[in-house]
Design brief:
Blueprint (H helix, E strand, L loop, with lengths): L1 E3 H4 E5 L11 E2 L3 E4 L11 E2 L4 E3 L1 H5 L11 E5 L3 E7 L4 E2 L4 E5 L6 H9 L2 H7 L10 H5 L2 E3 L3 H39 L6 E4 H4 E5 L14 E5 L1 H6 L8 E3 L7 E2 L4 E4 L5 E4 L5 E3 L3 E6 L4 H10 L1 H9 L10 H5 L2 E4 L2 H39 L1
Parallel strand pairs: 4-9, 5-8, 14-19
Antiparallel strand pairs: 1-11, 2-10, 3-6, 4-6, 7-8, 12-21, 13-20, 14-15, 16-19, 17-18, 17-20
């Protein structure tokens, strides 16, 4: 049955306390969410953002304290980020949140409704400088809400998969931390030989994929850009390129990707096969274990971020000369074999979990398409 959002809940805007009043901000008081806090956020529930605000900050701004289970929906810059408040929470003006009437809609069900409404939300936005959805427009936005029994039935399929995906992400984060901790404790061996990043790995730029747009009847691939790498998946709105591009710029699940422009990231790609955008490197080994080049590239990330921040250009970036000048320590074959017995099983487990999540995400996508 079709409902306006105002008929199944209350739509509430947010606000930002004056940044000229430092007493309005704190590390731990009232959780306060901005759209930036949801960039790349991969969980259903959120409990806090990067900053909290004080009670006086809340009282002296248009921010509102939302109850737990409110659906947070970003309404500008960008539109369509969604999460559920795990506890009482406030947002900035970049949200139009929904306090659901739980006699009509289950909060988790409304979460999936809004997650799958991104394109429709973008179409109802207005504005010249940047697109935004007003409280009135959001209140009148229509959604399909079935009976409570049907909502519960659908959630019985979706929630276990969603929770397993989130659990796997947490497992991988812990494995990643374990890998880095062991690596950082081992690499200071004075007997290791000095080399450079470009000696142990090849950093292959992607392509300007707009030059490789597919014809209507041509097989195509989605394009992996910084946004997709950051969020960990490719959505239906992503650009596509011809499937006939060179294999060296095709990326698969588990490949090491280094975003060298704008937002600097080093990640194992966790999504579907895609073509690589020119602002990313595909990192491949020069006869070294993958975990070795992955950890060394990550090790230099802080240095690269400092280099990028010091660039005169608007968007900081890393040059090949920065890669070539980055020193690494290379163990002899015996030492590398010893390290490999420790590191490889952990790294392989990460890739195994990434592959499992890719399968689960595929199933979840099918279910979302079927029910929403």
């Amino acid at each position: 049955m079709k409902y306006k959002l105002s008929e199944i809940g209350k739509v509430v805007g947010g606000g930002t306390p004056s940044t000229k009043q430092p007493e309005y901000y704190t590390d731990s008081e009232i959780p306060w969410i901005t759209p930036k806090d949801l960039s790349g956020y991969d969980k259903m529930f959120i409990s806090k953002g990067n900053r909290d605000i004080t009670k006086s900050g809340l009282e002296n701004s248009s921010a509102k304290l939302l109850p737990a289970k409110s659906i947070l929906v970003s309404s500008r810059a960008p539109i369509g980020y969604v999460a559920i408040a795990k506890n009482k929470i406030a947002t900035n003006q970049g949200f139009k949140s929904i306090i659901p009437n739980e006699s009509l809609v289950i909060p988790e069900y409304l979460y999936f409704v809004m997650k799958t409404s991104k394109q429709n939300l973008e179409q109802i936005a207005s504005g010249s400088t940047f697109k935004e959805i007003s409280t009135k427009v959001m209140s009148n936005f229509e959604v399909d809400i079935p009976s409570m029994n049907e909502q519960k039935r659908i959630l019985r399929y979706l929630l276990p998969i969603t929770r397993k995906i989130e659990k796997n992400i947490k497992i991988n984060d812990n494995l990643d931390l374990l890998l880095t901790t062991i690596f950082e404790n081992k690499i200071n061996n004075k007997n290791f030989t000095k080399a450079h990043l470009t000696d142990i790995a090849t950093y292959r730029n992607g392509l300007a994929m707009q030059k490789f747009r597919p014809d209507d009847n041509e097989q195509s691939l989605p394009v992996l850009k910084i946004k997709e790498l950051n969020q960990g998946y490719i959505d239906d709105s992503s650009d596509r390129c011809s499937a006939e591009i060179d294999e060296s710029v095709v990326v698969n699940t588990g490949d090491i990707i280094f975003s060298w422009s704008g937002t600097l990231l080093v990640k194992n790609w966790a999504g579907e096969t895609a073509g690589l955008n020119q602002h990313l490197f595909k990192v491949t080994s020069n006869n070294y274990p993958e975990w070795f080049i992955y950890e060394w590239t990550k090790h230099h990330l802080q240095k690269f971020q400092s280099i990028a921040a010091g660039k005169a250009t608007t968007m900081g970036h890393i040059k090949r000369s920065d890669l070539k000048s980055s020193e690494v320590l290379v163990p002899n074959n015996d030492e590398l074999d010893k390290l490999n017995t420790i590191m490889k099983p952990i790294y392989d487990k990460r890739i195994e979990v990434i592959n499992e999540n890719q399968r689960l995400i595929g199933i979840k996508r099918i279910l979302l398409q079927r029910y929403f």
